Backbone:
């Protein structure tokens, strides 16, 4: 890491004050700063810090409902938060700025390092230091063999797992240099590179992907076109041609309700029997769509992520005509599928009719006489709705939620006592409305499923990137680069062999390596004096 | 055995192992109290030797304080033995928990079970690495930590055995959670080393008492680094590979900035910064230890804190048995209906 404080004041040309930089110098200074290790570290910690608010403030993209609720509860703070981008932290300018800077810093770091590494890969291991015994881990022994024999053996022994320096021509060096563990730096580079790969994969998913949801009553078909979706969140570069031309129908839906034991009332084993065609003309195929088992058609994944009940209701108006007939989706309010919904009959005469109320899949009464839902399974369903009559506001052209009744121009229908009229109906029940408004029939219940459909291009790139990161990480953490030298010198008493090793990762213990090497070099030769080992290393 | 019997066995085993851990803690405390006034001198190796059960070293030094030495050795061995027994009973508690569920499963369905597993891994990791790294000095801290966390677990986090929610029925439960638990254990042990490093570094000159017998700061730093270097790839695997794969299958998006994901990511980034600082900036010791502890704080906050602070997390298994499917149905269409109601509306 270069220290920016070491600017060389004394070398400044005349006429410029200390600290004054030309544009070029400024750019170079900036580049150095941004690619310095310290900056990378600060950016990493900043990224961690910047991710925090996203887990505290509800996020638009994660839970839009919670975000809008939060806005309503905090009318003063909301605009400030909005301005700061706190409802969409991970797409905000400042969050993007941090990770883009980090990417620049990363690229600025890996490119030069790759070049250095490339040169190191092609270079020979360095020559043996003059005095091997000065290295922290060194040993020596004497032998009767000639220096050439020892060095030749050293070459074979080390050659198995090291890169060995070619014999220097003319240099009366009498030493073998070997190096291993080049892959540590490779692992390091791969790890850094993989971060870029993951980001690219993530970005592709965000730009070209989409996520859409649809609620289907059992038996309804779905054709994959934009208009078929209830909600649709496309990436910014999404084009409708990406929609695969498949269609499917949920033929049957089953839930396994636990009726006994501690988890009684809990549901499990959701299973939707789906028939689908990959294209308009393709063969019909079947798939058992379950949680954790999405259906994949082409590039598109189809998930089962929710379910509930849709009461089938027929509304006849005052003239006896059927003003509304069919299943209406009611939204679960809790895990027991106690649901809320509205039913609208805008074509009813003489007055438009709107029903608003709740559905108890299994109705019960507490001891105090309060209605309660006992179970998510529809054992004894009860539909309990209030009746509104008047203008439902559906002719004005403005879009209206199907889950909300516009009561601005309606009046609540009352019974003979002047109390709000509440219809409590079991399947098959028909109730006549007062004042000649008509009648309401609760025919029965149907299931609905919420299906999520998404394309996430680039997911395999991201996955590949993370796997690459893991492999690189393992290499950079656990491969130990090491240099080993063997020198043999013949003198009057025979040959003095010096062996030394240097761990370049820091913290590695090379003493056992030396012992093994000496043992291998001496081979079956016995009877020599034991090696005089010198070890003053701390490791 | 019936499921109920297994569950009773598990609960009893938790109680028993808690008591045995506590006895082990007392035993280690007696061991270290005995050494309180004895300066580190000839018996500098004693604590390690006690841990490794090598009485020969003790005999060498018995000339100084025969009583103290004998007591130290005895209680040190007793403490280790009790820890081994407690860990074995702990395992029984885990197995019982898994067998009590119907169908049988890995005991990682809720926070109580995850904490039970996490503490087991910490304790087992300590026992396995005890010899290799000479961790006898760590005994009181590890055992104390396990006792406290187990107590918190039983008192505040207890949940009766219940079937898993639908999304949890997946082989990824085993792979994802086991790697997260192992990484959590390794980071915790590494964090303990870092705390001791910081404490020891402030009072380097102590010659008596517990601190004097903790390894040199440099050694602590090295052990801590090794734990983190082991934990980080495992954490990467858990959080960035298995997590997204499973999330893609169950929730239809491999990364959805769920609060738990966010905090797992934060933990990952902090530990990445720790390794980065050590590898390149040459940060050792104090600064590195601080970073490691910051990472540990985010790790445990993510594990326990986020379940209580955030209700939106899909990982909130602290809430009573969330049925993912039912829940997802409540929220999304309502918001969708508000904005894009037309297709269904008219």
Residues:
């Amino acid at each position: 890491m270069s220290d920016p404080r070491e600017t060389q004041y004394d070398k400044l040309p005349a006429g410029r004050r200390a600290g004054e930089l030309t544009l070029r110098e400024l750019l170079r200074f900036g580049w150095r700063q941004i690619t310095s290790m310290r900056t990378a570290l600060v950016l990493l910690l900043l990224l961690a810090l910047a991710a925090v608010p996203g887990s505290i403030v509800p996020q638009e993209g994660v839970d839009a409902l919670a975000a809008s609720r939060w806005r309503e509860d905090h009318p003063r703070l909301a605009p400030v938060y909005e301005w700061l981008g706190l409802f969409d932290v991970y797409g905000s300018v400042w969050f993007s700025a941090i990770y883009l800077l980090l990417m620049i810093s990363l690229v600025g770091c890996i490119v030069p390092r790759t070049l250095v590494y490339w040169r190191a890969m092609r270079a020979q291991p360095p020559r043996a230091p003059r005095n091997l015994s000065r290295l922290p881990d060194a040993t020596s022994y004497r032998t009767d063999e000639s220096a050439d024999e020892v060095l030749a053996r050293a070459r074979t022994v080390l050659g198995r797992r090291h890169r060995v320096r070619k014999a220097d021509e003319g240099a009366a060096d009498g030493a073998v240099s070997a190096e291993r563990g080049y892959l540590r730096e490779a692992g390091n580079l791969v790890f850094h590179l993989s971060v870029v790969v993951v980001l690219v994969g993530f970005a592709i998913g965000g730009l070209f992907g989409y996520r859409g949801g649809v609620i289907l009553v059992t038996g309804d078909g779905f054709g994959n076109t934009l208009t078929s979706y209830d909600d649709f969140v496309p990436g910014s570069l999404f084009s409708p041609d990406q929609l695969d031309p498949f269609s499917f129908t949920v033929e049957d839906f089953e839930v396994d309700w636990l009726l006994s034991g501690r988890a009684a009332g809990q549901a499990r084993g959701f299973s939707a029997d789906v028939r689908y065609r990959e294209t308009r003309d393709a063969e019909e195929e079947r798939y058992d769509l379950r949680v954790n088992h999405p259906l994949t058609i082409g590039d598109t994944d189809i998930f089962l992520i929710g379910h509930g009940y849709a009461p089938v209701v027929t509304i006849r108006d005052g003239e006896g005509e059927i003003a509304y007939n069919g299943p209406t989706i009611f939204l679960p309010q809790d895990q027991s599928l106690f649901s809320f919904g509205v039913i609208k009959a805008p074509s009813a005469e003489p007055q438009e009719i709107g029903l608003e109320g709740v559905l108890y899949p299994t109705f019960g009464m507490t001891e105090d006489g309060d209605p309660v839902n006992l179970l998510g399974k529809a054992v004894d369903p009860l539909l309990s709705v209030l009746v509104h009559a008047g203008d439902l506001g559906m002719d004005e052209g403005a879009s209206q939620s199907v889950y909300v009744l516009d009561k601005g121009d309606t009046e609540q229908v009352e019974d003979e006592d002047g109390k709000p009229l509440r219809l409590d109906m079991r399947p098959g029940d028909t109730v006549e409305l007062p004042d000649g408004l008509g009648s309401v029939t609760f025919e029965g219940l149907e299931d609905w499923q919420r299906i999520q459909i998404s394309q996430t291009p680039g997911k395999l790139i991201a996955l590949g990137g993370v796997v690459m990161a893991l492999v690189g990480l393992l290499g950079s953490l656990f491969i130990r680069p090491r240099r080993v030298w063997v020198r043999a010198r013949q003198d009057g008493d025979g040959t003095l062999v010096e062996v030394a090793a240097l761990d370049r990762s820091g913290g590695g213990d090379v003493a056992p390596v030396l012992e093994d090497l000496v043992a291998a070099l001496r081979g079956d030769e016995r009877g020599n004096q034991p090696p005089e080992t010198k070890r003053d290393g701390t490791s | 055995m019936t499921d109920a019997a297994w569950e009773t066995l598990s609960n009893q085993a938790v109680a028993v192992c808690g008591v045995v851990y506590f006895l082990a803690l007392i035993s280690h405390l007696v061991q270290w109290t005995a050494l309180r006034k004895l300066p580190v001198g000839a018996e500098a190796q004693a604590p390690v030797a006690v841990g490794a059960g090598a009485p020969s070293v003790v005999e060498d030094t018995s000339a100084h304080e025969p009583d103290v030495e004998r007591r130290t050795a005895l209680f040190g061995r007793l403490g280790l033995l009790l820890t081994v027994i407690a860990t074995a009973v702990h395992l029984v508690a885990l197995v019982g928990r898994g067998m009590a569920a119907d169908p049988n499963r890995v005991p990682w369905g809720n926070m109580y079970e995850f904490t039970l597993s996490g503490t087991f891994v910490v304790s087992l990791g300590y026992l396995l690495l005890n010899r290799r790294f000479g961790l006898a000095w760590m005994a009181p801290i590890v055992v104390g930590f396990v006792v406290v966390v187990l107590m918190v677990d039983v008192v505040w986090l207890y949940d009766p055995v219940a079937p898993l929610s639908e999304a949890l029925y997946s082989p990824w439960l085993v792979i994802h959670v086991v790697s997260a638990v192992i990484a959590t254990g390794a980071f915790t042990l590494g964090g303990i080393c870092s705390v001791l490093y910081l404490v020891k570094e402030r009072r380097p000159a102590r010659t008596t008492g517990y601190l004097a017998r903790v390894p040199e700061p440099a050694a602590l730093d090295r052990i801590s680094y090794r734990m983190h270097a082991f934990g980080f790839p495992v954490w990467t695997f858990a959080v960035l590979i298995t997590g997204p794969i499973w999330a893609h299958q169950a929730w239809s998006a491999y990364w959805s900035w769920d609060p738990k994901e966010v905090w797992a990511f934060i933990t990952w980034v902090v530990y990445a910064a720790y390794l980065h600082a050590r590898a390149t900036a040459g940060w050792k010791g104090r600064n590195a230890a601080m970073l490691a502890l910051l990472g540990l704080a985010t790790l445990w906050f993510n594990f326990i804190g986020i379940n209580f602070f955030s209700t939106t997390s899909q990982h909130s298994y602290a809430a009573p048995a969330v049925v993912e499917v039912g829940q997802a149905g409540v929220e999304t269409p309502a918001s969708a209906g508000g904005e894009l109601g037309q297709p269904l509306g008219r």
Confidence is low (pLDDT under 50) at residues 42-63, 317-346 of chain B. Residues 66-100 of chain B form the longest helix (35 residues). Residues 1-161 of chain B form one domain.
